[in-house]
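Extended Data, panel c. Modelled sequence:
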Amino acid sequence: MALKRKSKQFKWRRKHLLGLRELSAEEITYILDTAKGFEQISTRSVKKAPPLRGRVVVNLFFEDSTRTRNSFALAANRLSADVIEFTKKASSVSKGETLLDTAKNMEAMGIDIVVVRHGAGGAPRFLSRSINACVVNAGDGFCEHPTQALLDAYTIRKIKGTLEGLKIAIVGDITHSRVARSDMWAMTKLGAEVIFVGPPTLMPSQVERLPVSVSYSLDEVIEKVDVINMLRIQFERLGGNPFPSVREYSHYFGLTVERMKKAKPDILVMHPGPINRGLEVESEVADGSNSVILEQVKNGLAVRMAVLFLVNQAAAQKD
């Protein structure tokens, strides 16, 4: 309760959201509290609010995306912003234009917020030092995906009431997952115990330095955890053969109906999407009563509205 009372007096001061490692528990809680206030906008007959009227948001996505991109676009629209959709294939990037030149040309058109997804780690931070617009990280390399972790934390808090004291397993391709890294920072700062689960070949080097415990057996942890977040196997990023076969990976690390029989009755099943059904999660589990996967997508809208609102507010205070 002390944290909640304190957060009411808190003033958001960051004009960029680049990652969660640098945020305090108080800042993370403030974003989640702000998102709660925006949730009801989606239930109105007119799904609009005026906070970003007159502002321009650009979705600068250098990698493919469905949920994140559309969620940010809808969040900006619901806050009455104008939205520019950037696609790498239909832009001058295909002719050799750099990230910075692209962003500066966009800025010359009068944009206020850049939502950027890029394959290079650190790209959003680089932009934040190079342009005047607010920068929101929508995923960079293997580094972070802060809004996904925020919506994950929001979903858990909404259902469980708190993250304090919960055991949360994050399962699968940890090495290539920016979601795993942002989830780790958000969830541990909010008081949860995080366990990375997967084969040794998909664990990051020096994982022992991170604020998590590690298990190489899903069966070993499934009985103990309150939440299980199944990660996508990122075949497009894999080098070599990190596991003998898809079938073997699914046997040891897939969330099956049989394996769910060992879990707590109220365990939450999560996945950032897109799902490789039958590999990471069986369809019966993904669509089952413990699954909150679609709830994550729904909550992502309120969380991204909160983030756009807060960075814009901070920028306006500095102007």
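The chain has two domains: 2-144+298-318, 146-292. This feature is highlighted in the accompanying rendering.
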